[in-house]
């Protein structure tokens, strides 16, 4: 977690420490695609170039910008495939979600909006049902929301 003081108050930025692994996977896929182009030529095996090259380019360029930013305006979530924003007035609750899996289970922060829609902050996920890092992130987000509500005269 990185806390910066901006012109409009505190800005908290959360990044998952596992992002460096995702970035390296993207770089490795990109190296494989470039290796196929150099050694075999793209005409010899276009499928391998596309299979490794597209995800490699996408991960290598997108992962460095994946983060969740809390500011006085609200929450901005920058994931691998989408960016979602919600103002503090639209956030009803901040909690933890859980995703069970065959190999590994993970927990992650979830924003429940007043409209009933949920925003899952999957780039902040941690392994296990009771991940301490995820609990700290949810707690910090709850403090930020409480501060907003106290300043606005809400609950």
Structural class comes to alpha+beta
Cα Rg: 19 Å
Return residue spans where pLDDT drops below 50 for at least 5 consecutive residues.
1-7
What's the helix-strand series?
Answer: EEHHEEEEEEEH
Average pLDDT: 83
Spatial shape: elongated
Major sheet = 5 strands, antiparallel
Separation of the first and last Cα atoms: 27 Å
Quote the beta fraction: 25-35%
Number of strands: 9
Number of helices: 3
Helix share bin: 25-40%
Strand order of the largest sheet: 1-2-3-4-5
Task: Please tag this protein with its features.
single chain, about 160 residues, alpha+beta, 5-stranded antiparallel β-sheet, 4-stranded antiparallel β-sheet, 3 helices, 9 strands, about 30% strand, disordered N terminus
Would you kindly provide a written description of the structure presented here, covering whatever features stand out?
With 155 residues, the protein is an alpha+beta fold. It is built from three helices and nine strands; from the N terminus they run ββααβββββββα. The strands form two sheets. Strands 1-2-3-4-5 form a five-stranded antiparallel sheet, with helices on one face. Strands 6, 7, 8 and 9 form a four-stranded antiparallel sheet that branches. A hairpin with a 4-residue loop joins strand 4 and strand 5.
Topology of helices and strands:
Elements: E1 2-6, E2 9-14, H1 19-40, H2 46-62, E3 67-70, E4 74-78, E5 83-87, E6 91-99, E7 106-113, E8 118-120, E9 126-127, H3 132-152
Antiparallel strand pairs: 1-2, 2-3, 3-4, 4-5, 6-7, 7-8, 7-9
Short summary:
With 155 residues, the protein is of the alpha+beta class.
């Amino acid at each position: 977690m990185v806390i910066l003081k901006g012109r409009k108050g505190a800005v908290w930025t959360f990044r998952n420490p596992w992002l460096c692994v995702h970035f390296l996977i993207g770089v490795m896929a990109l190296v494989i695609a470039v290796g196929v182009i150099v050694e075999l030529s793209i005409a010899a095996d276009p499928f391998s170039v596309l299979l490794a090259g597209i995800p490699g380019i996408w991960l290598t360029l997108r992962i460095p910008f994946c983060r969740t930013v809390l500011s006085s305006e609200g929450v901005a979530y920058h994931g691998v495939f989408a960016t979602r924003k919600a103002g503090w007035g639209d956030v009803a609750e901040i909690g933890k979600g859980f995703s069970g899996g065959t190999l590994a289970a993970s927990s992650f922060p979830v924003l429940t909006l007043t409209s009933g829609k949920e925003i899952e902050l999957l780039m902040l996920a941690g392994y296990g049902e009771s991940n301490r890092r995820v609990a700290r992130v949810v707690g910090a987000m709850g403090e930020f929301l409480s501060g907003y509500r106290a300043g606005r005269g809400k609950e």
